[in-house]
Amino acid sequence: MASSSGTKKYPPRLYEIGITPIQSRSMNHSCFLSNLQVMKESVGEDVWLELRESAVGVIIKLKELEYTWSAKHVHYFLVNQLAIQCSHEVWSLIEDQPLRFSLYEFEDITGLNCDPFDTQEQWDVAHEDFWVEMKVPISEGPKLNELQALFPIIRNWPREKRVMVGLLCLLSIGIFGISSNSRIPLHLAKRVMDPAAFQRHF
């Protein structure tokens, strides 16, 4: 919106110029798409192709494109945010021009499910036997390093179980971008055992 003087007015900045958060640890430090190569060799070509077409298959496609994540550019975008009251949009002022990035653009670019979660959903699945087989505590989600420890043995596992291990790896590496020693939230990790529930959420 322009004022009578022709000067454009925007909402205030979220951070004052010169007083912005430093670029600290972020997804850039833990999201190594190169980790997917060993997973590919372990789950097998048939499962890899199935994972590529899954709800989170965009992570594999980024790996195949040799995509490089630039934390510096993302940091610049975030520290120039405008203070707006909209939970699904980020507005930034770049070179005095407003730039919007919302869940709509994110969904268009990635193909990931950005629909609202069904807060009334009553869902669960018996995961304990598979967790025991993976040597993961049944009350917690797995860590990437626990999943990687399975790679030498899962080549002989049934396709369905190799798919589940592959999906868990994609969640850890590409969706959550967490440290290999951090656990995937249990309520989300269990969804790999139910394709329909996984598709609804991711």
TrEMBL record:
Domain DUF1985 positions: 78-199
Membrane spanning stretches: 163-184
Keywords on record: Membrane, Transmembrane, Transmembrane helix
Superkingdom in the source lineage: Eukaryota
PANTHER family: DUF1985 DOMAIN-CONTAINING PROTEIN
UniProt name for this protein: DUF1985 domain-containing protein
Protein's organism: Brassica oleracea (Wild cabbage)
